[in-house]
Amino acid sequence: MSEKFIPEQTVDQSEPLVTPESIEQDFEGELIPSMRNLAEAAQQLEDAVANAELSSVLQESVTGMRERLKRIAFRLVLVHSLLLSSSSFADVISRRESEFVGNDDTETLVGPPKPEYSAPDRETAHLLNYIVGRDTLSEDEVERLLKESWVTDFDLPTTLPETIGLEEMADSVVNKIETEEDLDQLALEGLKESLMGEKEYFPRFLEENDDLYEVIWQLEFEVGMPRIRFAFIKDGRSYYDPYDNRIVLNFSTTIIDTVASFKTFLGLSLGVEYKHGFDPSNILAEYAHAQQWSQNREGYNERHAKDSKQTLARADSLKISRYDSQKYEYGIPGTVEHEAHKLILPQLTKRFGELMQARKSSAFKAKSQ
Length: 369
Hints:
Elements: H1 20-51, H2 56-83, H3 86-100, H4 122-131, H5 139-153, H6 166-180, H7 185-197, H8 210-222, E1 227-231, E2 239-241, E3 246-250, H9 251-254, E4 255-265, E5 268-278, H10 281-295, H11 297-318, H12 322-328, H13 336-368
Parallel strand pairs: 1-3
Antiparallel strand pairs: 2-3, 4-5
């Protein structure tokens, strides 16, 4: 083995050399006790807040700080294990380099090209590819969705300018809470830090799912290719707008957290690690309306207009929201909502399941051959 070339350099003899042994000593002597103390303090603080009659905003802020400590601790474990294992570290570097540098001595397995579908509306294609793991949300999209979530969660005025920056929006939240809650400056600063920290962990991409890709695009074509949009909606529902054949999916109920695993560190709980996944129930429910519209546009628009009048009258009479009033129509035969949710949706749900099963069966057969 050839000797490594070490360029000449001036070494400060007063500084100790960094070796695996020194890393181990620092880790066990300083980092472990420090992380344990921080984790215990954060847990005690959260318990104290939970037992006190304090605002939910402060509770969420403390919980957010504890979760960030857990993530830091978990990352320290990973870094520590890599640095102390030269072979593992070399393997990681080697794998990383092989992703970017071609190796003529390594056989490259090339499968059939993946199909690519598109839609006349570019944003629809982008969002459908996002939910199946083939596209990523841009930073502008992440910031827009975050700001929408704060407007709905904290009941901010919807008249705020669209050009307002993320930090300005966070300041608006803090200012609103400051007028409603008796919180000190430290708590308000913690709230803002927690809000701004949400951007780092926003689900910019999902796990790729080729089966879902094929199935969701097939259904999109079958129901008339409605436009797809994401938004944070205050009552948590998704909806279909027949006037421009558009489905608006509520982000918080469409992109959901699923438990991946449970982590521990130094005997302390690091909590549950989450993955972000796609719940198809919302888009299927709105696909039912899109199918109604695509099969009989004029008839659907007339029925929708007639039902809307009844919805508003019922809402005024019963002093309920329009959405709650509309849900009454699920049980009224002849209405748009009854046909969509009681007749068409079960068929679409069944078809979705059958298509997914067929994809998995064909994939299994291909592997067996």
